[in-house]
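PROTEIN DESIGN WORKSHEET
SECTION A - STRUCTURE
LENGTH: 93
C-ALPHA CELLS:
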C-alpha cells in the first residue's frame, strides 16, 4: 500500500533535492540527508505518506461492511492469470 520501489526512490530523491535547495547545500558539500533533515526539522516524506495511509486504513476498517472495507479485504475467486502478478494497492511498503 502506498509508494513502491522505484516510485519511493524518486520521491526521496526529489524531496532531498528540494531540501538541499532550501538549506543552501550542494551535493559537493558532502552533507548527509539525515543532517539536512535534522537542520530543517523535516521528517522523511515516505514516513509521512506511510503514516497517512495507515491512519486512513484504520479509519476505513472502523466501519465494518463498508464498500471500501470490502474492496480492501476482498479476494477474487477463480484462477489467477499467467505471468507476473499485477501490483496491488495493499502490497506496497
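SECTION B - SEQUENCE
RESIDUE ASSIGNMENT:
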Amino acid at each position: 500500500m502506498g509508494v513502491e520501489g522505484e516510485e519511493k526512490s524518486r520521491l526521496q530523491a526529489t524531496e532531498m533535492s528540494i531540501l538541499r535547495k532550501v538549506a543552501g547545500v550542494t551535493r559537493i558539500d558532502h552533507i548527509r540527508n539525515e543532517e539536512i533533515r535534522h537542520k530543517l526539522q523535516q521528517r522523511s516524506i515516505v514516513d509521512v505518506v506511510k503514516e497517512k495511509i495507515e491512519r486512513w486504513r484504520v479509519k476505513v476498517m472502523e466501519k465494518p461492511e463498508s464498500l471500501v472495507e470490502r474492496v480492501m479485504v476482498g479476494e477474487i475467486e477463480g484462477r489467477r492469470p499467467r505471468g507476473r502478478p499485477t501490483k496491488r494497492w495493499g502490497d506496497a511498503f
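SECTION C - NOTES
The chain has one domain: 5-74.
The mean pLDDT is 84.
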